[in-house]
Amino acid sequence: MPAVFDFDRYTQLFNDLGAAGFPAEMHGHLVGRLSAGARYDHGTWLNVASELLDARGTVPEAGKVQLIQLYDASLAELSGGGFDVTLLLPDDSATVDHRTQALGQWCEGFLGGFGLVEREGELSEEADSALHDFAAIAQVQTDLEESEANEVDFMEVMEYVRMAVLMIFSECQPEADKQAKPPAALH
């Protein structure tokens, strides 16, 4: 995983700023906006990120660079034409309970970001269904014990979210962008 998606770096930034938000939720919000077709210059994205951080202080220059790198890397992955999309979540050394909670926060952020962007046209039934699934995932109740079954369940849900994001992103891009790459299929 590229360093730009190192969850611990963002957790540290949030802690240093006394931020009320969560790193996974902020990234989900960003990806939700990008998936719905929004594009921002770096200054606008930093303003959006600052609101999401809900911090007591201002973001230091190093934090601004980190947030800009997250924006650029997320957009590059989504529009890259492959099946690469990284969710900003704790790594495998974290408990399955902690990772599941972060995935719920990520989905909540995605829905919030996606919903703020004005789009033309209706979503396909498949995309609408995926958004409903994200809403259910956002409501996840955690207190999971470490087990192989819970680990497998987490990995399957995370992979579903990744593929659903690619499908939603592909569906919601302007026509000129759609012709540049084939749509991602959700299996």
TrEMBL record:
Which InterPro entries would you find in this protein's record? YgfB-like, YgfB-like_sf
Which Pfam family, an example, fits this chain? UPF0149
Can you quote a single GO CC term? cytosol
Protein family (similarity comment): Belongs to the UPF0149 family.
Q: What is this protein called?
A: Uncharacterized protein
Native source organism of the sequence:
Halopseudomonas laoshanensis
